[in-house]
Amino acid sequence: MHSLSIFTVLTSFSSCVLGQWSTWGPPNPSPVQPSSSSISSTPVYSSDATTYTNPVLEEVGADPWVVRSGDYYYITYTTQDNVTLLRSSILTDWNSAEVKLVFSPPENTSYTYSNWAPEVHYFEQYQKWYFIYTADVDPDHPSPQQDMLCDYTCPAVNHRMFALESSGSDIWESEYSMKAELNTYDQFAIDGTYFQHADKLYHIYSCWYTNQTSWPAMLCISEMSNPWTVSSPLSERLIISKPDQPWEKTPYNRTINDRLSSNEGPEQLTNPYTNQTFVIYSAARSDNRNYCLGLIELVGDNPLDINSWDKNEAGCVFYENPDEEVYGVGHASFVQSPDESEWWIVYHGMEDYLEGWSARTIRAQQFTWDETTGWPVFPRPGIGPYDVPSGQGS
Ligand SMILES: *[C@@H]1O[C@H](CO)[C@@H](O)[C@H](O)[C@H]1NC(C)=O
Ligand SMILES: *[C@@H]1O[C@H](CO)[C@@H](O)[C@H](O)[C@H]1NC(C)=O
Ligand SMILES: *[C@@H]1O[C@H](CO)[C@@H](O)[C@H](O)[C@H]1NC(C)=O
Ligand SMILES: *[C@@H]1O[C@H](CO)[C@@H](O)[C@H](O)[C@H]1NC(C)=O
Ligand SMILES: *[C@@H]1O[C@H](CO)[C@@H](O)[C@H](O)[C@H]1NC(C)=O
User: Fold this and answer.
1) Are 355 and 259 in contact (CB under 8 A)?
2) 124, 178, 227, 339: which could join 391 in a potential S-S bond, CB 3.0 to 4.6 Å?
3) Nearest bound ligand to CA 106?
4) What digits encode the pLDDT tens for the residues 99-111?
5) Ligand 3 pocket, residues with Cβ under 6 angstroms
6) What single Pfam family name could you report for this chain, choosing any that match (predicted)?
7) All domains in the chain, ordered by first residue
């Protein structure tokens, strides 16, 4: 939360940068400054509020994923211990949302620990909802005999992807059960998402070269025959992005090796006017201030051919905003306003980045589309107040 003084000063500043298109991500991050916040303001929300401030949930929250179904928005995010779904008619206030425990893993399974980055997707042909998420057989403590085989310390080496299936077509009333582990060739896999193109389904997730390379964490794609079955053999798994740019390294422009260099949190985003298809992903390191969003565009017809992908090497498309004390922004999802006239990005960011992962909170802002390039135009991340989504509360 922000001190009142900063809140007031930045209100006018934010309105002039909101919507500004920038093609270049963070230059060398500005020098580390101590956080100046100490006094907390308590935002007041109600369904007829015309403005809101970030964060939109007043608790630690990371890896948000939002979907709209019927009259409600639903959000799920990393809780570590379970898969949780929140329901609210208000995209910009989750503090009084209804809470549903979707899945609580039993003890002693391959998915008991470190439940990360859940997403929930509806598949019309099955008339069911599928949660796709990351989990681990151990609480990020592989045995020393396993760890010693990795290039670097590898706490997350046993993370794999899993799919839960709903009992029916109602996202909220359904019960959810474990459907399958997704085949990631018995290698590290986190932050997986579904990617759909030309009636085919794919799995895009954060991967390593082998089961023990540890870094870099890259983006891999494989084909799926249904929401719980990967059909590509390992030989056809394709790496579509590596953290090979200075802004994808931690610290910025690290050159000595690939430690902490990450591409993760991929999400499909399709321009509704042009049908251009993008993967928006998170780059650099999630417990760091220079965590940001990168962009890859599908420019060919076959997502399993590297020539079909064009990565924006100019820099992050969404990145820290020290002027408003917003750092380490990433792991976004995308949704429309209630009247479907606007597009919104829901992401996590940090105020006190020195606290790392535990500083992350969930935030939301409107974004637009560039009429020339067809690319998403993300705002600078900020606190607001901003206008609520169009149609909200009406
Ligand atoms: C899910 O796990 C979180 C983290 O341990 C916990 O705070 C929360 O109460 C759990 N949710 C439910 C509904 O049990
Ligand atoms: C965990 O599962 C293994 C294999 O199924 C079994 O041998 C072991 O006793 C189980 N441990 C606990 C604590 O349930
Ligand atoms: C990687 O796979 C090999 C071959 O299956 C296995 O011997 C090794 O223990 C694995 N390494 C890790 C770190 O899991
Ligand atoms: C990255 O570091 C290298 C080696 O120190 C330096 O030559 C290069 O100019 C740096 N690049 C950027 C973009 O800072
Ligand atoms: C986008 O795709 C939809 C569905 O296939 C199609 O109806 C529409 O004409 C396409 N729009 C453009 C601009 O290509």
Assistant:
1) no
2) 339
3) 2
4) 999 999 999 999 9
5) 146, 149-150, 157, 211-212
6) Glyco_hydro_43
7) 13-387 (2.115.10.20)
